[in-house]
Amino acid sequence: MSSFHEVQFPPDISYGSTGGPGFSTGVVTTSSGGEQRNQNWAQSRCKYNVAHGVKNQKQLDNLIAFFRARKGKAYGFRFKDWSDFKAVGQICGVLEGNKLVYQLQKTYVDSAGFTDIRLIKKPVSGTVTLYISGVMQTSGYTVDYVTGRITFDAIPAGVVTADFEYDVPCRFDTDEMPINIDNWSSYSWSGITVIEIKW
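Below the sequence we write its predicted structure tokens.
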């Protein structure tokens, strides 16, 4: 994806962000008060406000430089969601028609057994550990840290699972940077929204 930069948003700023996953659901209310709901998205889309993560002038300077380098909304980047960035023992999905290539994914299971599967497209470099039927693998595969795909040299003889860390592919949700001058040598930028890129 040419409009994506494989660079991580400053993690010391994302640490203070607020936000998380969201869905799109259409709700139609009938004249009797009943309703029908339509799920528009198969997977969630995350959205964050990072303004509260800026705590000093150096962080603001870094954020301004990062924003300028991304040209506002133009270029995507990696974002660390500190509330959800690790996965352990996750079953990898087989890509259709090719048993040599697997996609990293994370499965969320609630107390009633309902699940939600999230495709992981941006694993963190050097964090992926693979297992076949519970046995750790040290060779025989490659990991594409840009797409989250794993390619084996030979078809695995068992269930493929993985431990890994991951980023969320995001972009700024604004092309403008309204900086407030609070007082001499003190600046702030409120309402800094970044949103997950889906593809």
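The mean pLDDT is 91.
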